[in-house]
Each structure stands twice: as structure tokens, then as C-alpha cells.
Amino acid sequence: MTAQPIHPHEPERVPRHGEGIAAALSGARRMEFYREFLAAAPEEAEGVLKRWWCEAMLDTDPAGDRLTAAALDGTLPTTPVADLVARRREAGLPVE
Q1: Cβ(24)–Cβ(13) below 8 Å
Q2: How many CB atoms lie within 10 A of CB 35?
Q3: Which of 22, 32, 76, 91 has the fewest other C-beta atoms within 10 Å?
Q4: Which residues 6+ apart lie within 8 Å of 57 measured at CB?
Q5: What's the DSSP call for residue 76?
Q6: pLDDT (tens digit, 9 = 90+) per residue, 7-61?
Q7: Domain limits, the chain
Q8: Which of 70, 42, 36 is nearest to 56 (CA)?
């Protein structure tokens, strides 16, 4: 099963490639990304890009500070996985 954003970004805030990811990160985090990406074996490179794309999306989220605070305070709304699976089934979407 793949997760889809509730509010998709068109165009995405962070392009899904190394240059786009690096541009969205701050100096120290950008260097950490490059070190990890350049050290990755070819079969690991895609995983590194995916992880750092998520980090870059979180870093550039206008509501990021509010969401982080809510998560740390335990007030961030959550949805049980069973509810999400039921919604996907009702919409005729795959749930594997």
C-alpha cells in the first residue's frame, strides 16, 4: 500500500531528485545529505533519496513548527490504520 498526501502539492515543494533535495536543505543538513548520498552503494541510493526527500519536505512545510509542537505535546490528531484501510477500500483503491 502507498500513502497519498491529503493535500498534494502542485508542483511539489521539493523536486524528487538530488539537486532539488539539496536545494531545500540548510547548509549543515545539505552536507549531511551529500555525504550519505555519495557514500551509498548504487542499490541504496534510491532509499537515501527517498528518506532525504521526506526530510526536505518536512523542513520546507509552512506548518512544520506547529506540527512538530503538536507531535511533541501529544496533541497531533491521528487516524487508526484500520480506518485508512476502510476508506481506501470504500474508494476502490488498493490496500495491499
Answers
A1: yes
A2: 10
A3: 91
A4: 12, 13, 14, 24
A5: -
A6: 665 678 899 999 999 999 999 999 999 999 999 999 999 999 999 999 999 889 8
A7: 1-61, 64-96
A8: 36
